[in-house]
Specification:
Layout (H helix, E strand, L loop, with lengths): L2 H4 L1 H14 L3 E6 L4 E4 L2 H4 L10 H6 L7 E3 L6 H4 L11 E9 L2 E10 L2 H9 L1 H41 L3 E6 L4 E4 L1 H6 L20 H5 L8 E10 L2 E14 L2 E11 H15 L12 H14 L5 E4 L6 H10 L8 E5 L8 H6 E2 L12 E2 L1 H4 L4 E5 L6 H13 L1 E3 L6 E3 L3 E6 L3 H6 L5 H7 L2 E4 L8 H17 L6 E2 L1 H9 L5 H15 L4 E2 L6 H7 L11 H16 L3 H11 L3 H10 L6
Parallel strand pairs: 11-18, 11-19, 12-15, 15-18, 20-21
Antiparallel strand pairs: 1-2, 1-5, 3-4, 4-5, 6-7, 6-10, 8-9, 9-10, 13-14, 16-17
Helix pairs in contact: 11-12, 18-20, 22-23
The structure holds adenosine-5'-triphosphate.
GO molecular function, one term: sequence-specific DNA binding
InterPro entries: AAA+_ATPase, AAA_lid_NorR, GAF-like_dom_sf, Homeodomain-like_sf, HTH_Fis, P-loop_NTPase, PAS, PAS-like_dom_sf
GO biological process, one term: regulation of DNA-templated transcription
Length: 594
């Protein structure tokens, strides 16, 4: 819709009003060259399009255009080029552009339809041009004002949405203390059920000293905090309020009061404190007996400074447990330094762990560099993948652990260190000791308090709990609204063997949440590796059923002894059953002999 059409009714009223007191007809056209309003003969053709080539058409194509005066449309060059010329009842005209945002959006015209009107128009030419321009300007400012009101309406709606979206109650008042805005939360906190705008704020908070607030005397940077009592019927409660002045050119024109119930604030504070007091082990999820016991034991051990060895397959959470021990210990304010022994090249191990002095080797930093042990002084060092530490270095490590002293590479002074050691490995260190791949003395030094974290497949009761935990985490992170898993998906998760343990489970759930398009995770959203592990295996259990084992054993025996009569006899003997039982089982299990 064109700008002028939006004001059609109003414009027609203007046209009627002017035409009633003037002896000319009026026509207002928009930028589609359509007659939006008109009087006299133009009234009959309102809504029709004049077409290209007319004077309005010329005016709208140029944003700088000025008024036109046409004395005689019959002989005027412009009019001769107009497509509307034949039907046009106009003999003479004053026409002015109506502008909006720098563009011509239409025209205002005073028209003569008979000779007398034409003569009058010519006689009053200059006055009428001024008049026509003034009316066009008036219409321009009406359009601008309408647009401004529209924008203000949008702003007001946005403002309302913003203040309604905050949890605090917000009330805005003017300089007289009358409420101009009140948000949803405020009406809820104050238990109001009617519109309160216009009411004076004192009717809610009689003790509020508006004069002092507006006089600025108690305000710091236009802001203050205060407690206010609020009474509603028999109920009375206190609110913690923030009051902010609203100023225009340094003059106070109102204030906003935002608040929360004191009770709610207390609850919030308790919640924050409670969260703060959460045990570091609470982050480790699991309701299996194994995890519950591990958490209990590690919690106790955390209070000591004894060395801990954590064994478990990759991804079982060894790192998480190690950090929790540190965070529950007296050393929690000091550093927790994690070292992956498998990731450090052999020739750098010593300088990485014990540091080096300036000039210790080519490329050594000026001033030297402290090693991980020094950085962990008074804190905890987590030696992950300890089984990958080369034998020759194990001697050096043992010495540092025993002496509680170290020397930097290239250094002569020994440095005292007070470090708690937590080591971890996915390897069988005892077996490595037997095979001569790990030093016995170091093993005993580390194995002071050993823990073993069972793989996920051995604590199935944790699988769904962890799956839901990660589902929530990633749904939230990825902004999705996924409610849970279908029965089929749950079965797959429960029966998969999880060689990568919780790390693999976490990654799988992240993947599923990423690609899911419904609000339940179905089997099809699980990663290929999981689905493939079940393909060709109707039974989803990783533990084969006894029937399955029996069937497979019979097939194996037949493969070994053959399917001839003699072969079957031997197979039955090897299986410890009679021939007729074997025949019955071949039938039961549908084993076809080729
Ligand atoms: N019980 C648990 N609850 C919640 N998240 C867990 C749990 N166990 C492990 N995780 C998560 O699984 C991932 C792997 O854990 P972590 O790195 O501690 O395992 P790891 O045994 O040290 O692995 P690696 O031996 O490969 O270093 C991490 O993202 C961790 O946050």
């Amino acid at each position: 819709m064109t700008k002028l059409k939006e004001l059609k009714k109003f414009i027609q009223q203007i046209a009627n009003a002017f035409a009633a007191v003037m002896d000319y007809e009026i026509g207002i056209l928009d930028d589609e060259v359509e007659i939006v309003a008109g009087t006299g003969k133009y009234k009959e053709i309102v809504n029709s399009r004049v077409g290209s080539g007319c004077i309005t058409d010329r005016l709208i194509s140029n944003s700088n255009s000025k008024s036109f005066f046409v004395e005689d449309t019959d002989s005027n060059d412009l009019c001769n080029r107009c497509q509307f010329k034949k039907e046009c009842p106009v003999l003479a005209v004053v026409i002015s552009p109506i502008k909006f945002s720098g563009q011509v959006v239409g025209t205002f015209a005073l028209m003569a339809f008979d000779e007398t009107q034409r003569q009058n128009l010519i006689t009053n030419r200059s006055n009428l041009i001024t008049f026509s321009e003034k009316v066009a300007d008036f219409l321009s400012s009406t359009l601008a004002e309408k647009e401004m009101r529209k924008q203000m309406g949008i702003l007001a709606d946005q403002f309302k949405a913003v203040i309604n979206s905050v949890h605090e109650g917000i009330i805005a008042i003017n300089a007289q203390g009358n409420i101009t805005h009140i948000n949803q939360s405020a009406t809820e906190v104050l238990k109001l059920n009617q519109v309160q705008t216009g009411k004076n704020i004192k009717s809610f908070f009689p003790e509020l000293n508006l004069e002092r607030i507006f006089s600025d005397s108690i305000m710091k940077n236009d802001y203050c905090e205060t407690k206010l009592k609020y009474k509603q019927g028999e109920e009375e409660f206190e609110l913690l309020c923030n009051i902010t002045l609203i100023k225009n050119n340094e003059q106070v024109i109102g204030a906003t009061i935002s608040f929360r119930g004191l009770e709610e604030m207390k609850q919030l504070a308790t919640k924050i404190i409670a969260e703060d007091q959460q045990s570091a082990f609470d982050k480790i999820k699991g309701t299996s007996n194994e995890i519950i016991n591990l958490k209990k034991q590690m919690h106790k051990v955390a209070q000591t400074s004894s060395t801990v060895l954590i064994c478990g397959e990759s991804g079982t959470g060894k790192g998480m447990f190690a950090r929790a021990i540190h965070e529950e210990s007296d050393r929690k304010e000091e550093a927790f330094i994690s070292v992956n022994c498998a990731a450090i090249p052999e020739n750098l191990l010593e300088s990485e762990l014990f540091g080096y002095e300036e000039g210790a080797f080519t490329g050594a930093k000026k001033g030297g560099k402290p090693g991980k042990f020094e950085l962990a002084h008074k804190g905890t060092i987590f030696l992950d993948e300890i089984g990958d530490m080369p034998l020759h270095f194990q001697v050096k490590l043992l010495k540092v652990i025993e002496d509680k002293k170290l020397e930097r590479v290239g250094g002569v002074e020994s440095i005292d260190i007070d470090v708690r050691i937590i080591a971890a490995t996915h390897q069988d260190l005892k077996k490595m000791v037997k095979e001569g791949k790990f030093r016995k003395d170091l093993f005993y030094r580390l194995n002071v308090i050993p823990f073993s974290i069972p793989p996920l497949r051995e604590r199935k009761e944790d699988i769904l709990l962890l799956s839901h935990f990660f589902l929530q985490r990633y749904s939230h992170l990825l902004g999705k609204d996924i409610e849970g898993f279908t029965e089929g998906a749950k079965q797959k998760l429960l029966n998969y063997s999880w060689p990568g343990n919780i790390r693999e489970l976490e990654n799988s759930i992240e993947y599923a949440v990423n690609i899911a398009t419904s609000n339940y995770i179905t089997e099809k959203y699980l990663p290929e590796t999981i689905l493939e592990s079940f393909s060709g295996n109707e039974e989803t259990s990783v533990v084969p059923t006894l029937n399955e084992v029996e069937r497979k054993t019979i097939i194996k025996a037949l493969q070994e002894f053959g399917t001839s009569g003699k072969g079957k006899e031997k197979a039955a003997e090897a299986l410890g059953i009679g021939r007729s039982t074997l025949y019955r089982k071949l039938d039961d299990y549908n084993i076809e002999l080729s």
